[in-house]
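hey so i finally got around to running the thing on that chain from the lab meeting. sorry it took forever, my laptop kept dying and i had to restart like 3 times. anyway pasting the input first so we r on the same page abt which one it is
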Amino acid sequence: MGAGAYRRMMSAWGIAMPGRRHAMNQFVAADAATRSSDVGSAPPTKSLNAYGSVALVHDWCPSFRGGERVLAELRRVFEADHIFTLFQFLERDVLDAHFPETEFHTSAANNWPGVRKFYRHLFPLCPFLMEQFDVTGFDAVVSSSAAFARGIITRPDQPHLCYVHSPMRYAWDEQFSYIDQMRMGKAGGLLFRILMHHMRTWDTRTAHAPDVMVANSNFVRARIRRIYGRDAEVVFPPVDVAQEAFSRDKDDYYVTASFLAPYKRTDLVIRAFNAMPNRRLLVVGEGQQSRALRSMAGPNVEFTGYLSRAAYLRTVARARALVFAGCEDFGIALAEAQALGTPLVAFGRGGARDIVVPFGGGHEPTGILFDRQDEATLIDAVAAFETCRANFSPDACRQRASRFSTERFHQGITRAFDMTMEVHRASFR
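ok and heres what got predicted. didnt touch it at all, straight out
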């Protein structure tokens, strides 16, 4: 539904909406100036904090990665102890450390046999499952969405702030990349295209449900404007890396770190380093491509699997550079590398443009950005990095990462929530 149609519908219900654009303009100006229960169960009575009772809604929590780190900080900001999410498979130590005294409300599908292995294949059911959560007993809703959470059903008088990690990437501009990388064949590709057509219809219909959208990067902000016709201010995700993890001393290896999924393009990094046998690469992480990537790697490519947090920080901090060839919406792993004093060699589209000061683009560069996702370009980028490596200061890298601090995230989200309340009130005047 377009913005005009939404406004006409609200007008037909007797709800005037003169203040949304004005309120959003105030938000933009303010930011520039400061820079497991079953589906359908009613939530219990909530004690109030400064924000009232807030329901947090998140797509799914299979593991503790970037989106879940943001969710943990949202829980702290709003002192929320109820999270609604389709699937929750977090380890007990993660729950104790980041979600103490928090109740997770999950979908019925969370308890299906073997669901941990195939939950991603249930995406056609996810809009329906998300719509079954009952959050109407809360004073406000804050959703953390890369796909489905934004579609939560709320009361007309219930403020809704949405933190957008990305519009549903595989349903929009990255549809063709997914089809190509997953090698679905003609029949599978056709079925996927049909499913994505229906997914786009649902996604567009729910695009104007939140009162305010916040983007996690300027790249996502542009995607929101192009796909949904809405403006969103940018609040960068929190990057919390202790000073003691920082290292000025670098070893002789490069590192790439991510969940090993097709869109991360770890395959491209491995192929490039196969062609550079004198350069060592560590691959950190696991995922659906683990077996295929190991089978294609040369002797100079080493896989570490998942690492403990402390081991991960040490590995990235000591790397000559972190190499990333995917298009991330933001890229917390990239920002963490900078906080650890490690330069980046990264594809120059997406959140990397917010994170890296490219060589030649500032007096204190923090990395190399390359403009094409192919082996030759990445090999040239690594060679360029080697040539000008003395220009990259670990201290400059860490200083660059300071703009992604947890404190700035809390300030930005608090300001966004205040604006959500103002936009919501304006819609009822």
